[in-house]
Design brief:
- The chain is mostly helical.
- The chain has one domain.
- α1 runs antiparallel to α2, α2 packs antiparallel against α3 and α2 packs parallel to α4.
Length: 109
């Protein structure tokens, strides 16, 4: 699934989760976390940093209000690890781009 499609699917799940009962939410939250993890894995250049960061805010809200069973806890743990890894990758790319632009400025000066 393309990144845009994954993000649209995540947004659809966000809307759906808002309408579910407390007992139905954990399963759908787990699915949404899985979608975001796939998005991060399929975004090697971190082109979707903004969307991924925004998803973290949504996830934080969900987890704080959800009844966490073992499956949701495990899925959240995987998500948190992948989110941290994506953040490191993103900061490395930003740093590399900054260094590259700095070198270009030196050559054009």
């Amino acid at each position: 699934m393309a990144l845009d499609d994954q993000l649209l699917f995540f947004q659809d799940l966000v809307v759906k989760i808002k309408t579910l009962s407390v007992s139905e939410k954990p399963t759908q939250i787990g699915e949404a976390l899985n979608v975001v993890q796939h998005t991060m894995a399929n975004d090697p250049n971190c082109a979707r940093q903004v969307e991924v960061r925004n998803s973290a805010k949504v996830v934080k809200f969900w987890i704080s209000g959800a009844r966490c069973d073992n499956d949701l806890g495990d899925e959240y743990e995987k998500y948190a690890y992948n989110f941290a890894d994506y953040g490191y990758k993103s900061s490395d790319i930003d740093h590399a781009e900054w260094q590259s632009s700095k070198k270009r400025e030196q050559f054009t000066a």
